[in-house]
Amino acid sequence: MKTTPPFLPLVRELVRTYQAFERVSAGHVRSMGLTPAQFDVVATLGNTQGMNPKQLGEKTLITKGTLTGVVDRLAEKGLVQRLPDPRDGRGQIVRLTAQGQALFETVFPAHVAHIGRALAGFDSARLGPTQQALHLLRQALEQAGGAEAEA
Amino acid sequence: MKTTPPFLPLVRELVRTYQAFERVSAGHVRSMGLTPAQFDVVATLGNTQGMNPKQLGEKTLITKGTLTGVVDRLAEKGLVQRLPDPRDGRGQIVRLTAQGQALFETVFPAHVAHIGRALAGFDSARLGPTQQALHLLRQALEQAGGAEAEA
DNA sequence: TATTGTTATACTCTATAACTATA
DNA sequence: TATAGTTATAGAGTATAACAATA
């Protein structure tokens, strides 16, 4: 008879909590006419001067082949534009258009407010400690990921 | 000039920590020949006598139309089978086949061990408090989700 | 009438690899 | 040769709605 490893309940709770957040978040994102990946890109480009697809992929965890499609669809909607990278003839800069910037300025605060309402019942004194607890957990996981890549 | 709401860093940390977990987990799941959704179904059916698609969808958060396809593909691989529900002529019971059960018994412990290695660097004294912190956060989010559905 | 599960549609994301054009 | 990004391919999940069988 095996014993359940002691870390499993924590992992389950992490997954469930994230899923609870996703339910709150994704529904609202879709109601704005964006997919989660598209929202991620718009949110990442917001308040920047744009960046190349490589950086964008690293920040959003979207691989380059997929990112081309995501950016294509955002460009079709008139939310982002591709500009040549003056420093590298192979490269480009993806940035929000004026319309994309306007969307970001409207939609992002609305989304933040939506999440804020969902967290209204959460004791604000616990915000910091919870964040710190997650941070330590993440550090362990990322360290493992790095070690794994080397193995 | 706006102030960043105090809960945003926590939310960001939740998302990043989950993504770090996913990187550790999803790579291993795929190496076993299952997609995340398929693994989720197999793990949910493991150690049960099977359940109907409705319950399965509720536990895995997969909607019914999608679940039909996921179960189809698992059935093609010989890992699950559909049995008529003796209590309800409309319903069915999805359960692991012997092969599916064998896979579960091999693959699930391997996956747990993989995650365990990734968490080797995490202070075990923090397991409980971190889990509890997440639980409280999840409660707030789920309470909000319920309230939202009523609105 | 309401519910269970399937089917159909259309889209999006995913992984992978071959390809181009620059560097 | 190596890198940035696109294209091609095949598969899988998503939302949504219409549908058949049963309750």
Can you identify the CATH superfamily of the largest domain in chain A?
A: Winged helix-like DNA-binding domain superfamily/Winged helix DNA-binding domain
- CATH hierarchy class name of the largest domain in chain A: Mainly Alpha
CATH topology of the largest domain in chain A: Arc Repressor Mutant, subunit A
* SS field, number of helical segments of chain A: 6
Tally of domains of chain A: 2
Strand fraction band of chain A?
A: 5-15%
Oligomer category: homodimer
Order of strands across the widest beta sheet of chain A?
Answer: 1-2
**What is the averaged pLDDT score of chain A?**
92
Short description:
The structure is a homodimer of 151-residue chains. The first copy, chain A, is 66% helix and 7% strand.
Overall description:
The structure is a homodimer of 151-residue chains. Chain A has 151 residues and is mainly α. Chain A folds into 2 domains: 8-120, Winged helix-like DNA-binding domain superfamily/Winged helix DNA-binding domain (Arc Repressor Mutant, subunit A, Orthogonal Bundle), CATH 1.10.10; 124-151. In chain A, 66% of the residues lie in helices and 7% in strands. Chain A is built from 6 helices and 2 strands, in the order ααααββαα. Chain A has helices at residues 8-31, 36-45, 53-60, 64-76, 98-118, 127-150; strands at residues 80-84, 92-96. Chain A has a two-stranded antiparallel sheet. In chain A, helix 1 (8-31) packs across helix 5 (98-118). The model of chain A has no long low-confidence stretch (mean pLDDT 92). At the A-B interface, helix 1, helix 5 and helix 6 of A face helix 1, helix 5 and helix 6 of B. Chain A binds a DNA duplex (23 and 23 nucleotides) through residues 30, 35-38, 52-54, 62-70, 73, 85, 88-92. Chains A, B: Keywords: DNA-binding, Transcription, Transcription regulation. Chains A, B: This is Transcriptional regulator, MarR family. Chains A, B: GO terms for molecular function: DNA binding; DNA-binding transcription factor activity. Chains A, B: InterPro entries: HTH_MarR-typ, Tscrpt_reg_MarR-type_CS, WH-like_DNA-bd_sf, WH_DNA-bd_sf. Chains A, B: Residues 7-142 form the HTH marR-type domain.
